[in-house]
Fold these 3 entries.
Entry 1:
Amino acid sequence: MSPVASREEEGELVRACIEGKDAAWERLVRDYSGGALAGVKAALRQRGHGSDPALEEELLADSFEILAAEGGATLRSFRGESGLATFISVVATRRAFRVLRDRLRHGKAVDRKGEQEKRAPRTGEPDPAQNVQAAERASLMVETIAELSGSDKLLLTLFYLDGRSYKDIAAVTGLAVTGVGTKIARARARLKERLARRGVSTDGSDPDI
Amino acid sequence: MSQDCPKDLVRSLVEGTLDVAGSHDGSAADQRASVLAHLEACASCRKLQSKLERNERLVRAALETAGDTDADSECPSPADLAAWTEHALEEDARAKIEEHVARCALCRGSSAIASSPAVLSAFEKGDVPETALDAVRRRVALARAESADAQMSKLTASGRRRSQRTTGRYAAVPASPIAGLGMGFWIAAAAALLVAVGLIAFRETTTVEAPVAEKPSAPTPVVPPAPPSTRESPAPRDPREAPPIAPRETPSPDTRTPAETPAESPVVDQNPPEAEPEEDDGRHAPRGVGAPKTGGPDIARRPDPKGPDPKGPDEKQPKDVVGRQDGGPKRTDEPVLACAVEGLSGPIEVKKKDGKWHALAAGDLLHAGDSLRAKGNDASLTVASRAKVQLDGDTVGTVAFTRTGVKLTIESGGLGFDHLVLAAGAGKPTVTGRDQGTAPFLVARTVGAGAKKVATRSANTALASPDVEPTSVHWLRRCAPAGLGQRADGAGRDIPLSDGIHEGLRPK
């Protein structure tokens, strides 16, 4: 069954799986593994992970196990508002991101400890007052960003944090590609305005931090 | 800085929005070239650029803090996120999820990938290696089987205690266990008073239900008609075991037959009427249900008390312990599924009896007697969704998975270990090991996150665990010899743990 299958057909397939029909599960696995695997690979690439067929296959198997576990609880949550392909992609990519995040945390914990052990005493400490000022400024920025509307925050994080192209941002947000740049600029302007109200300038007129 | 300096363009360049810089004529590329040329010539604009870039770094750092929160528990369900991705939600729901996605890198990433044309087109192509599909099928079959197990456990735990029914004399229910019985039992008992003959048959049928909950956990792939892997040998069926099941009951013991549409039959038919007393591993029947526990954890494959070959290991290269198991546990062809294989810094490798080392992947079937090694890497292996083995560094050993427990043969010598701390779980593990000289190893059992008991055993001695329901098997870090105490006698005794022991393991 391809993604062009109707929502009704997808719903029937899901229902049959939930009812425990082996043939339905076989069909689900066979027809949706390709896209799920592609999603897993994209997730690994996005996180800078190199090609790892064993890991990719493991994550693929994890994803379908998640669908089948606990009486198919995850699959039961599918409501048909989206396509089944999108739903399974979300399950697969989430699994991949979480596994990578957990691995990264493990690595970070080890590295941090090692770094602490190796760190030499610092000399030439900067002015503590400047440190406090910089920390306050950073904190104000975080607070201000948190106050932005969801759509502004999403645009700014997709563009500046995730490095998404206008085309990708348009796909995620539903905006027209030609309007994404303008929306980002306006979101940026609103952020600047809010920061200015809090006494934080981003036009370079502040003294050096 | 003069009035002609294109400060706005410099700002747009730094912010990355040069292509929407308003009223300036020319394409973005031309504007960029123009600004860059100006910056080369104008020191004050370069100074401005530098300040703006510093601010920009702060903004991006603030975005990173705000946009990469670890609010996993707040993530919307896959259905909600998928619906949001396809812009299929109502305004309020959409805004709520949008607010979360702005903060959550995980959801942003998932949404972006799920909506990408490349991934969507991959659903049509379906280009997946058959081995990967087989692994998926096995995992699905396992998950479905476990769901069925859990469902049966609930039925069993609803008040039907086997001990109450061994005589079939429902009128003689003792008073003391009444408090532990659930509503199901009372409903059954009440019905028994009304329809005697019919209830006798019903209760006799249900008396054999308890062993159902103790059926072997070895998963059997049912969905794929093809053999799971060319590496595994066929599994002869133990007549004492329940037939392999999909989540539904299937009468045929042949695991290779195509999955047939299962009947909605009750679980009572799945087990032989005289199942051997099996270990209660806590996953199926609750405590107290089932036959009295036997002394050994592995009735079918009791290890050789002599343990593995006492010859010293090759210090340079981990050896295949399987080859040394002369007189050791006999190899069985009953496979166990490797559910989750996580090579944190490198792969886990497996070697069959006559084969070579190769990377172990989830979905592979492991046989008792297979060798495992991490070869200088950290890794973990979850088996049959129950026992989890973590391989630390150069650990090498052989793992045997039984219906009722896990048996580990650990080669600790020659690898720089002074002591090896091991937490054994998943039923009643039997641990045999060998040491070098006076290096004992510790054995602890975990229930959840805490250690139940710590005991020491000398090497080459089979350890029968006490009646505890551990949940996992861990390889722990090498611990320092100081503070570990003396070698224990045959019964084992508690000793203090050294600081080098894994954080998650503490004696009660």
Entry 2:
Amino acid sequence: MEKFSFNEYRFAENDVANRLGLVEGVDALYTLENINNVESKERVSLTREVIENSLFESFSDYKVLKSESVVRPLGESTLFTTSGVQRIETLAKNDVPLVSQEKFVTSQPVIRSQFMDKIRQGTSTSFVNYSVESFNTSNETMIEVFKKYIQCIEKLKIDTSKITVEFSNGSEKWGQNRFDNFVTKIFYENIEFADIALIYNYPFSKNKIPIVDLGFGMERLIWMLDRESPFFPEYADYYVNSNKDLVTGVLDPIRSMVLIALDGTGPSNANHGYRLRQFSKRFVDRNLVTKFDENDLINKAYLFWTQFNHDAKNIDLILNTIKLENSRNFNALLLKKLRDDHEIDLNIDINRSSEDFITNLGFSVKKEIIDSLKNYFL
Amino acid sequence: MKKVSKTFISGGGSKEQTQEFDSLFFSELANNSKILYIPVALDRDYKGFESCFDWFASLINFHQGSKDIDFEMILKDADVPSLKNFDAVYIGGGNTYKLLNYIYTKELKIKLKEFLESGGLIYGGSAGAIILGKDIRTVEEENNENYLSYEGLNFLGGYSIKCHFRDSDSVALIQKANKYGLKILALPEKSGVIFSNKNISFVGEHTEL
């Protein structure tokens, strides 16, 4: 087996900083002091169209590709697409030979389940990950990508004087693939909003190839410039006069459910379906407080995500799938409350509408207890 | 009815190798149970931890049968949620010293002790198992960051634990036992031990040193 030594190829932090024109600041962070600043008074209202125009212009020599499905086949490193760079797994699986410098940019919806219990403004499980990828490239591409990305930032009129940069060398493991990398994290007023990874030696086919991977989230980019703004603007009305972290916490799981269900995934106790179920439980639990209209939430998420998925299932199917699953988990909460508060342990099928379920409960449980449950939950 | 706490110590291995032992753990969980999964002994980026999330989900899917079992995964920089919300805590493998440092930094020792006393279940796999023992110098070679702490949580009746044990490890392990005055339970892969009150039951092979 080839013994790869990345030390000879590894970037040194200060070399990279010099070449990018960065100035060392405090706490191992670098600033863009030497790069033209943009006055914040010129700020532009960021939308998906504005961001994509700037990004595609800045990387005009990159192909623009449609996004992949967020639901990945079993056996890949993750169940769901977590970033645009995962296209490399699709290429490897299909034995696609890589040309030198396979370069593309894409607007990729992603799911990062690890955050499902940590949702607040700025953090979500589903978002649009803008990905700029260069496969089978050279290490030098990282320098070029950084510079072009700063041009993109400047086109968006983002104040570069508020940006800091952090570097690190390390090793990672994605599934069975181990590799070494140099990561550049980019912050705006201490909020990390983008990163550029130079992967020195990604195992591909029988070789090890360099990859440069730039990724940043659309929602976070827009929100970081005005942190009082709704993290999910398509749901702006729900944020009015409300605790924004709480609202984001309720909206996130239903938004992720719709994204998963668009490809036809249904709930189950296995694989992708189990994840859908986990999101549903969180939505049902959190919406006990806010009592948002489920139909409207699903419809808005559907309109949002179908901008990126042109093979999406019909809205009625999505509505039906998600509402039935939410009913199931709501019914489970009712049974739990009966157990915890009234020591009544029933074995009743929860896989039905909540209306049917409560009617059925009435055959085994006293009316006053049913009424107290309704008062608590509805 | 008061729940009986149990601590499951796995000798490590793949999902297939630990299947028998894991099934005993999952059989203790009721319908609608919730597990707190702690994978912080691993060194991973966001994508790596996403794989961890999927792996743990697949472990649950394999064993849950008709039961509804949920879990929450915690990352190293996050606040630890109240353990009262969980029926079990699963501590995964990786670097034992890094994990122990995390446990102490987050002041988890007392919380885990109270959790056990209230009838909770704890599963420790590999590094997760070793930190539950008295002394983690059974794997002192893992201390690549010069961590100072080596005292484990000592939830296992004074035993220290060695996982992934092979016969070729015996000599070095006996030396450690003598040097540090340790009572060691050495567990090969595919094996495990369950501590409950003052009872100990073994699954598969084990060696006491």
Entry 3:
Amino acid sequence: MKLNFNLDAITKVSEFCIGREGSGQRRFVVVPADRAVIDELEKMVRRTWDGMAAHEDGCVKYEPSNKYASKAWLYVPLVDEMVVEMRNMHGAANLPSNAKELSTDPNEIYCYFVRLTDNQGQKLTAVRRASYFKAVSKRPLIQVFDDSVVMVTNALFKLDHDFDLLIDSEHVHILRLGAFESIGRLSEAILSSVPDNISFIKEQLPFIELGSIESYARTHIRAARYLASICAQENLGRIDMQRLLNQCVSTEVKAREVEGKLVIDVGAEMNFLQVLDRRRYGMELVMDKPEIFVAGSRKKA
Amino acid sequence: MKSREGLKIARLLMVLSSVSPVFVLWAVRGSNGGVPNVCFVLLCVLLFLTPNLFLLCRIRIATKKKGQGPRELVVGQWDDRGDHLLVYLFTMLLPFYSADLGTLRSVVATFIALAFVVFLFWHLNLHYMNLIFAMFGYRIFMICPPNSDNPFQEKTRYSLITRRVSFLPDQRINAYRVSDTVYLEAK
């Protein structure tokens, strides 16, 4: 997986921005920054990309229902509705500029990012969750100045070692999943996409009665994540009803066929989604001792 | 949400630079006896040079190679503010040029009136209106980003100082920040 940006040909056209969150509303502001700050931010971008490239497994497509290590190289296509927040951050033009925003109510700052341009006009947005900044701003710091020690009373802004996310023209590259889910308000995005995902699955699998599943997934984030993952599967429309029913029976999922449709009992919605998401398995290695497993993370062999 | 625009002193000096042609006219005209002529001319020269030197420094800082560098602005809608210079000419330069400076009281009153105008220009972010830009071939446009569903894309209006005469739809330009609302297009 390559970055759609030339890190060796970064131009001087750039923006350093902060994200503020207050009263449930988010907004971004450009903060004028000296060249030295921009240079340091560019180094952070390089360190981030090097950190991603160092992952042995390479780049893996993010699935909302899978569990991953806290640091891993994942990607999501920028057109995916899951990353609408990132897409808007990357594409917002003419953000307002205000140097005083950095020192005003620093606890409202939830992220900072830099937007870079290469010599081909390609854009890159590198984002970092600003949780460390908040912690620093609460404690007084001591700064050694000449031979005397003075108290630093102004809020300090400390840059991190690298970024959490890199956004180019086609993908969101994720290094820290927790930051991605927090900055991207992923839970809200996934819950709001439940109706669209249900509609999609209905088209692909018309023999499944999805009414109870939709009601359940609207209020249960894990189920909503399973739905999002299921929609991204290849060959979804080629699932055979009888084979699906057999798998449900063998893994003790309460589902039955009623007038040619697969109906899921109340309370079995999550288990059924696990089957559809290929993460509920049955094994019988010991005679007469069948075991059922649910995989938090799975990878096709 | 309160907007606290920065560079307050810089904007004030830029406004003084905008009104500085008045001081040139007054220096040529003289004080007509209101105050000693030498002092008056020196004051006018000081009031002309100080803000204009500052404006030059501000632009040099904004455009220097080791500075922040330009940022990209997208021009969705644009509005030529050249007519503002005409308004400025007839409401600013001509009335103040012909102000009576024959007595000390009239000189003080004139400067107080000028201070009100300066304050208004500063408060309304009209610090981009400057004959000096026009003399160097620059035009002033008010630009807005294109319409978009992007909730983070506010309808921020910027004043753009440029040598262009028009823009293509959704044209992207690189510009240096002179203040939070005034940008100078990069070459």
